[in-house]
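Open question from group meeting: does this chain pack into something compact, or does most of it stay loose? Before anyone orders reagents, we agreed to write out a predicted structure and look at it together. Recording both the input and the output here so the notebook holds the full record.
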Amino acid sequence: MPKNIKYGKVLVVVFLTVLIWVWADLALDESLPVLGATVKIARSNPALWVSFDDRPSVSVEEIVLKGPSMRIAELDRNLKKGQNLVFDFDAVREGMADPGPHSLVLLPFLQKDKEIKRLGLKVERCKPDKLSVKVVGLVEKKLEVRCEDDDQNPIPASIEPKEVFVPVPEDVGGGFAQVQLTAGDIEQARGSYIKKTPHFKLADGQITMARTPVKITMPAAEDPRQDRLVEQPTLAVALSVNLQARYEVIVTNYAEVTAAFEIRATLDAWRVFQAQLLPSMTLYIYDDDVKKGTEEQSREVVYNFPPEFFRKGEIDLKSPSQPRRAKFKLRPLTAAGTPPTGAQ
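Structure tokens returned:
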């Protein structure tokens, strides 16, 4: 008869084997030097401005990590993909809430980092040994609000309220609360208004925010165009080769159509319009117009404004909704002859 298999012993052997392999892998610790890790300020108290010598973050020259080869290899792959180690420094949590200079001993700070522990790694050593921490107390002061564009140029705007409370260092005796407006913000504020929260610039891009937003409106943009008089307009009549040898176009209100008219144009657009070889206006005649015989017809003329300036809104009629309308008749030519080449 077959012998009874002692499954309990087999399971114990398998478990011990797996345990030995896991232990062996964990025992193979490796070290990994990491260059350029970042320690950045985590602002937990709005009444404090914490910085590394007026900087919001600092780059650590080198951190040497040690841990199981699998974890080290995983971290190394992530670093090569562009990920970086970032450590949040909270002055309150680290017992540095009192205003003044402080010194952060870097190694124990890094060693207790939650992410490092989650990865199963240890920090063996680092450079530098310490970081200088500066803590400045902030108090709320009422400051005048000013607007600026993306290039930090001042923008004239109507601001309500004109002053707001902003946390600033105690020794600040003046200054302004600022609102930065994009081109889109400016355009929106011209037609209506926008709400923005002002800020006060501390140093190296760091800011503190006001307690409340302000309402901003912008004056209407100044129109760069001016009223200009076209004193002696010219009119061209355009018709296809099918009609040129068969019909004469008679504009019955020619004097009215070619009377002086006003446009609005920038100086550049005006100069190009005056210098171009095209006539001021064109009346287009279509082949189907012959169906009405000699009956008087009418059609709006097309103004030959320089296309590049017209697209940008730099030239147009002073009253764009009131283009002139030419009245015309098609009179058959008495000697029709043979239509020009290309006519059907």
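Observations to bring back to the group:
Confidence is low (pLDDT under 50) at residues 336-344.
The longest strand covers residues 130-148.
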